[in-house]
Amino acid sequence: MAGAGGGGCPAGGNDLQWCFSQVKGAVDEDVAEADIISTVEFNYSGDLLATGDKGGRVVIFQREQEVPILKPMDLMVEASPRRIFANAHTYHINSISVNSDHETYLSADDLRINLWHLEITDRSFNIVDIKPANMEELTEVITAAELHPLQCNVFVYSSSKGTVRLCDMRAAALCDRHAKFFEEPEDPSSRSFFSEIISSISDVKFSHSGRYMMTRDYLSVKVWDLNMESRPVETHQVHEYLRSKLCSLYENDCIFDKFECCWNGPDSAIMTGSYNNFFRMFDRNTRRDVTLEASRESSRPRASLKPRRVCPGGKRRKDEISVDSLDFNKKILHTAWHPADNIIAVAATNNLYIFQDKVN
């Protein structure tokens, strides 16, 4: 895979020039915790884009047939919960995934995964439980879970130990025995104090085709073929230049940041976030990658995004950014790719950026 700086623009085999479309959010330097965006996702058609924040608010944007422009307007609809699914989790929920049967969904926390029926709010079925009898014996936690996009009986969940288990609900009501186990053997020569922390998987996503899955750990994105458990078929380095900074990243708790990842519609490109409001794209066909920045400084209408490069050390080129000057308080944790078009949404703290290709 290409190096950390990035070169061309991936777009499923073609060179693509990304340009600014719009940004939503306050410009204030002091951001309230409740205003930080915690999730962003398109619906299946791509006509709706939803964001949620830590204050519990959900904002839904609707796409118009022309290049959408956000205009301030009075509140016309106020959402109220239709159903509340309660009392099933002891710990914070880290994943929710709707099933392909459109009747059920799963929710996951650190130790359990439950399966719900959309019409039944007062009970759920526990399908994974890794809580030991003695909590002192706990060695790993569930970090993410997702249902297969085509097979309603199959789901995966990742762990803090860098492993992924694929389970089939047809085998047993409680999926305490996995059908497949995905783990990349660690190179003993590269083991360090931080090895287990940076190998923890923060996100797992099936490809739209259902043939592959993608996992994100602290430094890389990996693509796995569901038919091969022993090692990933692709490994893309997101910000390898941070390996020398792990000690300081541990001290400021950034090493525990949970980065998400997403596929484009045809599964030919993937995207994930980094620091300094950078986000990374990888073209699976051409093996080219690019680093782009979500910034208000380049938020002129239709302004092209210029690839950014990070200098890991030594002599820095004119167009490069020193790794020592990166702002670790500015981070892209949540991204979304339109299911059909080259339109992406990137959440940077309390701002939502939307970019599109210049053709559109």
Key attributes of the depicted protein:
4-stranded antiparallel sheet; globular; 360 residues; 2 helices; 25 strands; single chain; mainly beta; disordered N terminus; 35% strand
> What would the average pLDDT be, to the nearest integer?
89
Terminal-residue CA separation? 29 Å
Rg (CA only):
20 Å
Strand content: 35-45%
The percent of residues in helical segments reads under 10%
Poorly predicted runs of 5 or more residues: 1-14
| Most strands sheet | 4 strands, antiparallel
Label the structural class: mainly beta
Following the backbone from N to C, one meets helices and strands in this order, namely EEEEEEEEEEEEHEEEEHEEEEEEEEE
Order of strands across the biggest sheet?
Answer: 1-25-24-23
- Please tally the helical runs, counting DSSP H or I stretches of 4 or more residues: 2
Characterize the overall form.
Answer: globular
- Secondary structure tally: strands: 25
Describe the protein's architecture and organization.
There is one protein chain. With 360 residues, the chain is mainly β. It has 2 helices and 25 strands. The strands form 7 sheets. Strands 1-25-24-23 form a 4-stranded antiparallel β-sheet, with no helix packed on it. A 4-stranded antiparallel β-sheet has the order 5-6-7-8, with no helix packed on it. Strands 9-10-11-12 form a 4-stranded antiparallel β-sheet, with no helix packed on it. A hairpin with a 3-residue loop joins strand 14 and strand 15. The longest helix is centred in the C-terminal third of the chain and has 6 residues, at 246-251. The two termini are 29 Å apart. The relative contact order is 0.19.
